[in-house]
Amino acid sequence: MSASREVTQRVHDKLRRELGPLVCDLLSQDDVIEIILNADGRLWAERLGQPMVPVGTMLPGQAESLMATVASTIPTTLTRDSPMLECELPLDGSRFSAVIPPVVEAPCFSIRVPAKRIFPLETYRDNGIISARQMGILTAAIADRKNILVSGGTGSGKTTFANAIIDYIARVTPEHRLAILEDTRELQCASQNVIAMRTSEPAPMDRLLRHALRQRPDRIIVGEVRDRAALTLLKSWTTGHPGGVATVHSNVDDPRAALRRMEFLVAEAFTGSAVELIGEAVDVIVTIAKTKEGARRVQGIATVAGWNGTSYDIEWDQAA
């Protein structure tokens, strides 16, 4: 074993000790999607399709040691002057978000676990998450290389649903080269012709998108649109790279809210009106939400015909 691999192995062993048997076991389970530590020392876990529940406790000292080890792999440090950490958990690429005093009373963290298996669109239909009619609209849009925006709030299942769309793309157009861009590793793709890129400080999403255009992709997929890169994405979708997929954060179960969100993001890079570009680039909007019972549900699928001069032309197939 090389020296670098030995160092990595020691770090991983240390992380497993600091995470503890409970959290390590949760990380290994297929249906666990989030693990959270609150300031009171309680650990919570959320499983796919179920509400979050308490699962145990962790002492502040153990949490602080864990955070310090994770921070050292970037490398950085957590201090009172720099009390927040956003990175990937070295063990499995889970999104790790941590914060320490004085921002909070005691150490807190959130581990967003990447999907270990893909639920195909057929499973969403069979489980009643999407209707057969809505699935027909969506699969036709994928086959016709329409650009699809998946919209929903935090924890609504946007990324998991995007994975189902990507899975369908790989099955119906296996010859297509996919460019997948994201901040942290959450999207999965079974296609054999794919380039997966992740942002970094010297390579933000906007720069990755411009570089991806030179990689000859047939479809461009973005994990979440959250900044000025929205403009570059929309332009790419309308200039020879149709059939893309992206997610966007919106707490309103209305497709127009997703389009307004895109307007706000584009405004970070462009002072003029972008409504015509958005109306041309976005063909389909899927709105997804978490129900009171903790399950996910596609609230509606909207087809966008463009901007008519005063508003977006939208036909919305809303869930019953």
Descriptive account of the structure:
Belongs to the GSP E family. One of its GO terms (cellular component) is cytoplasm. Residues 213-227 form the Bacterial type II secretion system protein E domain. Pfam families: T2SSE. This protein is 34% helix and 27% strand. By secondary structure, the chain is an alpha/beta fold. The protein folds into two domains: 3-112, Beta-Lactamase; 121-318, Rossmann fold (3-Layer(aba) Sandwich). An eight-stranded mixed beta sheet has the order 9-8-10-11-7-12-13-14, with helices on both faces. A six-stranded antiparallel beta sheet has the order 3-2-1-6-5-4, covered by helices on one side. The longest helix is centred in the N-terminal third of the chain and has 26 residues, at 3-28. The N and C termini lie far apart (58 Å). The relative contact order is 0.11.
Largest sheet: 8 strands, mixed
Sheet-strand content, in percent, reads 25-35%
Strand order of the largest sheet: 9-8-10-11-7-12-13-14
Shape: globular
Could you tell me the number of beta strands?
A: 14
Summing up helix and strand content along with how strands pair, one would put the structural category as: alpha/beta
Q: Helix-strand pattern, N to C?
A: HEEEHEEEHHEHEEHEHEHHEEE
- Number of discrete domains: 2
CATH fold description of the largest domain: Rossmann fold
